[in-house]
Every structure is written in C-alpha cells, then in structure tokens.
Amino acid sequence: MAERLHDQTPRTGGETLISLKGVSKNFRKNSKEITVVNDCNLDIAENEFLVIVGPTGSGKSTLLKLIAGFEAPTSGEIRVGGDIIKRPGADRGMIFQEYALLPWRNVLKNVELGLEFKGSRDEAENRKQAMKYIDMVGLSYAVNKYPVELSGGMKRRASLAMILVTKPKILLMDGPFNALDSKTKMTLHTEITRIWEHEKNTIIFVTSELDEAVKLSDRIAVMNKTGKISRIFQNDLPRPRMGKAALDADFHNRFVKLREEVLNEVKAGAGKAVCEY
Ligand SMILES: Nc1ncnc2c1ncn2[C@@H]1O[C@H](COP(=O)(O)OP(=O)(O)OP(=O)(O)O)[C@@H](O)[C@H]1O
Ligand SMILES: [Mg+2]
Predict the structure, then answer these.
(1) d(CA 277, CA 267)
(2) pLDDT at 265
(3) What is the per-residue pLDDT for 263?
(4) 56 ligand 1 Cβ < 6 A
C-alpha cells in the first residue's frame, strides 16, 4: 500500500472498466421532454479516480444513476467489464446525495445491513467488518446511536461505512462529503484515497468543490448545462497530495492552475444556471 501511495504514474493508462457510448437520458418535465444527459462518451479505466463537476442541474447525479443501473439510458449504452448494464449490481456501490439509513436501526446495525444485503450471514464477522469501517470513518463513538440522533455529517459517514464495508469494485459517490466540516472532510479525503489505493476500486465521484476535485482525481470531467461532458482534464499532480506534499511551492502552483482551468470550464458551461463554484 505504501508504494502505491507514492506511485506517481497516472492510473488512466489501465484497462477500460466502464465505457459510455453516446449515452443520453431524457425526462418528461411539465409535459415537455428534456435532455438531462446528452450524448456522453467516456471510458473509465480500472482503478481510476474520476471526478465529475458541473453546475447544478447539469445531470451529474443522473449520470451516476445510469452507471449504477438505477436509471436506463434513453439512447446509447453503458458497459462494465464489457457487459451492458441492465440493472444495479453488487459490483457497483452508490453513495447518494441524500443519505439512506434505516431509522429503526442504529449505526452498527445499518452498516451491518450492507453485508446482510450481500448475503453474509456470519454475524460475528459482519460485526467485526462493520466496526472496522465505522472506525475508519470516525464514528466508533456513535455505533449505538439511531439516525434521528445523528448530525448530517454523522449520517454521511454512516452511509459511507455502509457501502465501503461491502467492498464494491466500483464506487459511485454523489457529493459524499458535501456539508461536512473541513476537518472531517480532510480526514475522509485521506481515508478515501487510502481505501482506493488499497482496495484498487474504481471511483466516480461527483462534487461541487474544485479543491476536492483536484485533490482526489486522476481526471476531472466537466458537465455543462446541456448535459454534455464539455471537457476532461487529466490530473497529473503527484500523489500523495495531502499533508506535507501540499506545501511544496511547485505542487501548489500546479494545483491552483488546474483548479483555475476547471473553474473556467465550469463557468463557461453554466450559462444562466446557478453556478455555485
Ligand atoms: N426522475 C426525474 N424526472 C424528471 N426530471 C428529473 C429526474 N431526475 C432529474 N431530473 C431533472 O434533471 C436535471 C438534472 O438533474 P441532476 O440531479 O442529474 O443534476 P445535478 O447535476 O446532479 O445537480 P446538483 O448539482 O444540483 O445535484 C434537473 O433539471 C432535474 O430536475
Ligand atoms: Mg446532483
């Protein structure tokens, strides 16, 4: 794991795992057909960390739901490992913009649920695994609390642990760290990078924060208000990108430059849409 953390080669040269070809999604809104995802073409490599940014309403969540298999494309196709996606699968774990916890189960029982869904019946092992991931997201002190007793940030961490414990090959994360305080966010940036390095999963991560995008990504895809991917930025900043490394002047300059370029692209594609970047 340590070598991987210091491995500076981009991961985007690997085998294609997820492939989107001409993917569009229309919805009916007030008896009008609207195109929300518009002719998206994208190949995502195995163990790539792809971040998607774009103004509100540009179709980011819809694109993730299409890859998860919760929605079907109106046209085009999405393949994972060569097979067309028809429905959700255990290979793809999605962390929604809204958290999804069962109110009658405490944190531990909610996280164990992820394993129960997967069919793991060994209660002692399930508990051990659940505790490991609850600890990883910094929630050990709240294992016995029920969702109603948790803050927004705690609910997000519990949802994260619930998905991580199932070790999905593909992690689809829709603004998982939105609205968290900056200290928790920094801890989770380090943790998600470590998990990704260690478990070698492929991550597609939506965010509205460009610092987060530059910190985490191998590439950054920008969606615009027409639902198109307007540009994809390669992020060759060396890893690790947190802690001491971020203090290096050259690193800092490159970081700021890339963030600026992405910001300009997002703004250019926002039109009159609300641009919170
Ligand atoms: N099931 C649906 N039925 C009708 N319209 C929908 C549906 N889901 C999404 N939309 C519309 O599609 C557009 C894109 O929504 P989406 O949630 O994908 O955007 P987003 O980029 O994730 O925005 P945000 O940054 O605010 O989360 C919006 O106009 C939304 O109202
Ligand atoms: Mg969204």
Answers:
(1) 8
(2) 97
(3) 97
(4) yes
CA of 276 to the centre of ligand 2 (A): 13
The finding on whether 60 has its CB within 6 A of some atom of ligand 1 is yes
Domains of the chain and any CATH numbers:
2-84+170-181+195-268 (3.40.50.300), 92-167 (no CATH)
Block means of pLDDT (10 residues each) for the chain, 277 residues, are 39 83 95 96 97 96 96 97 92 80 95 89 95 90 96 86 91 88 86 89 96 98 97 97 90 97 95 64
Tell me if 272 CB under 6 Å of ligand 1: no
The conformation of residue 78, written as its DSSP 8-state character, comes to E
Who's near 81: CB < 8 A, 6+ residues apart?
17, 91
How far, in Å, CA of 178 to CA of 156, rounded?
A: 9
The per-residue pLDDT for 1 is 37
d(CA 206, CA 174) in angstroms, rounded, equals 5
Q: Which residues surround ligand 2, an ion (CB under 5 A)?
A: 61
Cβ–ligand 1 distance for 275 under 6 Å, the answer no
Q: If DSSP codes are grouped into helix, strand and coil, which group holds residue 62?
A: helix
How many A from CA of 67 to the centre of ligand 1?
A: 15
pLDDT at 2: 39
pLDDT number for residue 110: 95
Question: Tokens for 259?
Answer: 């963030």
Q: pLDDT tens digits for 199-217?
A: 899 999 999 999 999 999 9
Report the alpha-carbon distance of residue 166 to residue 139 in Å, rounded. Answer: 17
Residue nearest to atom 1 of ligand 1 (CA): 27
The best mutation among 23, 61, 70, 274 to test binding of ligand 1, ranked by most ligand atoms within 8 Å of the C-beta, falls on 61
Q: Is the peptide bond before 240 cis (omega within 30 degrees of 0)?
A: yes
* Ligand nearest the Cα atom of residue 65: 1
